[in-house]
Amino acid sequence: MKSLERFERRDSVSTDPAPRIKNVKGGIETDALRMMKPNSWNGKAIGVFCSGGDSQGMNAAVRGVVRMGLYCGCKVYFIHEGYVGMVEGGKLIQEASWEAVSGIIQKGGTIIGSARCAEFRQRPGRVAAAYNLVIRGISNIVCIGGDGSLTGANLFRAEWASLLQELVDSLKITPEQQEQFKHLNIVGLVGSIDNDFCGTDMTIGTDSALHRIVECIDAITTTAQSHQRTFVLEVMGRHCGYLALVASLACEADWVFIPEWPPEENWPEQMCKKLAQVSFICEVPAEKQVHALCKLFVFYKFDFYVFFVGARDGTSLKHRHRVRGCH
């Protein structure tokens, strides 16, 4: 970061949507670079939490948030167990240190826990969450999660002003605190193996999950070829067929079902004709189609096995997600 030291400091910070650029001696300074200078955000506080299903790279993302926040002079807080920790507060919200995130970049899952929270879906739960943040001086949060988690964070931001007003009316916070923390800033990091979020090239966890799926298929293929047996593999992906599609291309699957391309009406006949020529694998992300396939294979007397490949919990990270999480 020594290269940043040659940029001269300016007193004000731009609020323009696009960063301003200024020519200075020794290089070009932008608002983005100036904001990342050491101790440039003294007095600010950041809360970081993971929500929903875990994915490879969450720990790397947590580490990146904590260390960059500390470098810029912020206090950084772990919010354990996702929105549960935000609603309950207490020991579930703890200040983070530089050493607290050492040695976690290679680990799958998340060291601060991840959970779904029914209480946060109700307004009283969001009021409690707002109170627990304000009394700690937190008005900046980083949410690492999937579609549901980021949707909840967006709702929280939209209601923030009214939540603080409710806390003032109930005498839980002062008008001065309401004014000081009147804006809630949210950064969303998409931690999901499904790769189902618009605007991202690849979500945190997808590549490592795909790597695990391909490893499993490669191992199963030898058995399928040895016994001339058809294997049906169901992979995760929810409403997105990315994992199934890419894995089927990478492993030469004979048939694939994905939500984006529903099968034609006569797919059973076409598939059985195909499998009569080769005996390999199918990748199926839809449970109802797994059941239909099983019945079909029994009827046509195919020798088959069904496998479900989760490729998420507890697995270590590929190098790409160790780096992607840090970014």
Can you lay out the helices and strands and say which pair or pack?
Elements: E1 21-24, E2 27-30, H1 31-35, E3 45-51, H2 58-71, E4 75-79, H3 83-88, E5 93-95, E6 114-115, H4 123-134, E7 140-145, H5 147-169, H6 175-180, E8 185-190, H7 206-227, E9 230-235, H8 242-250, E10 255-256, H9 267-275, E11 281-283, H10 287-300, E12 304-309, H11 319-326
Helix pairs in contact: 2-11, 4-5, 7-8
Brief synopsis:
With 327 residues, this protein is an alpha/beta fold. The protein has eleven helices and twelve strands.
Strand content: 15-25%
Tell how many strands the DSSP assignment holds. Answer: 12
Residue stretches low in confidence (pLDDT < 50, at least 5 long) are 1-19, 279-286
First-to-last CA distance: 15 Å
Please count the helical segments.
11
What is the helix content? 25-40%
Strand and helix order: EEHEHEHEEHEHHEHEHEHEHEH
The biggest beta sheet is recorded as: 6 strands, mixed
- Class from helix and strand fractions: alpha/beta
Describe this structure in words.
The chain has 327 residues and is of the alpha/beta class. The chain contains eleven helices and twelve strands. The strands form three sheets. Strands 3, 4, 5, 6, 7 and 8 form a six-stranded mixed beta sheet that branches. α2 (58-71) runs parallel beside α11, α4 crosses α5 (147-169) and α7 (206-227) packs across α8 (242-250). It is elongated and about 75 Å long.
